[in-house]
Amino acid sequence: MFLVTGATGELGRRIVRESRLKNLPVRAFVRLISDYAELSHRGAEVFIGDLKRERDIEKAMKGIQFVISAHGGDSEALDYRANIDLIDAAQSEGVQHFVFISVLGVDRGYEDAPTFKAKREVEKYLQASGLNYTILRPSGFASNLLPLAEQFRRTGVYLLVGDPRSRTSIVSPDDLARIAIASVDLEAARNQSLAIGGSEILERQDVPKILGRIFNREPVMINPPLFAFDAVRNLIGVVSSDGKESLGTLRALLANEFYLTPAETARIESIYGFKLETLEAFLRRYLSI
Fold it and tell me: Could you list the pLDDT tens digit for every one of the 289 residues in the chain?
């Protein structure tokens, strides 16, 4: 039995879906207010609880062999504390394998990025726990671009903040879901920290070009510099220090490169036995083009 947290999120929903397509038993940890009808319809066991409550985590962990932590949110309460409690409960239950979804670049020391800091501390705690584990460090999700693609379809405009030549390897969350599930059975993935991305290195300015090809129109790229973002962030800080701090993770994502080397991509494709999807293929598939 798999336990999947964040089961109604972009990634978690896909993990549950892929698990059920493989007829794997899965328990989906969801909030009462979330939309979990699809998960139940697919045959997942739905556990309604709160990841901020240790007791709920302990109850959800009963009878579980494999954990996939795919949730996110409040950096301290969810990205950090809830994962620590999940790891402790997994130890107590004798879980066979723990898959943790981290983030690419987590080990670079972005002190101003709460999500990066929280996930790095969880990584270290998991590595010291004695559990069999796989840490997956994905780059940005291709699904995050779907709203921008729909906007582009309507207007032909694409907003890109910061350096347009910054490199990225955008990952299909469908690929990541397959990888997360397969990790519990693969010796090559055991006790490993693996960078996960798409099959290509793109410059951020390539994204509107891809959309231009898909929709057969010339893209109009609006490209405010990073210091404009910093100015807005500082203004927010005058009103709310918490608001400014919460934007630290977004700034780290805008200001830095997140891509896989060809060797890293080849390693992932070798371990998991399939070709990673390109961004253009993902977008065409979801946009039905």
Answer: 999 999 999 999 999 999 999 999 999 999 999 999 999 999 999 999 999 999 999 999 999 999 999 998 877 888 999 999 999 999 999 999 999 999 999 999 998 899 999 999 999 999 999 999 999 999 999 999 999 999 999 999 999 999 999 999 999 999 999 999 999 999 999 999 999 999 999 999 999 999 999 999 999 999 999 988 888 888 888 777 667 777 888 899 999 999 999 999 999 999 999 999 999 999 999 998 7
202 strand-pairing partners: 168
For the record, the structure tokens of 239 come out as 């009103």
Q: What pairing do the DSSP bridges indicate for beta strands 133-138 and 157-159?
A: unpaired
Question: Beta strand 167-168 with 202-203: parallel, antiparallel or unpaired?
Answer: antiparallel
Contact at 8 Å (CB) between 13 and 36? no
Closest CA to 114 of 236, 230, 20, 248: 248
Residue holding tokens 């983030």? Answer: 103
Which residues make beta-bridge pairs with 129? none
**Residue 249 near residue 114 (C-beta atoms within 8 A):** yes
User: Nearest 5 degrees, angle CA 23-CA 79-CA 230?
Assistant: 125
CB count, 10 Å around CB of 269? 14
Q: Structure pTM? A: 0.95
How far lies 106's CA from each of 42, 123, 176, 194, in Å? 34, 9, 17, 12
Helix (H) or strand (E) holding 48: strand 45-48
Is-contact 85 53, C-beta < 8 A?
no
Q: Which domains does the chain have, with CATH numbers?
A: 2-139+172-196+261-274 (3.40.50.720)
Q: Which two tokens stand for residue 214?
A: 């898909």
Q: What is the DSSP string of 73-91?
A: -SIIIIIIIIHHHHHHHHH
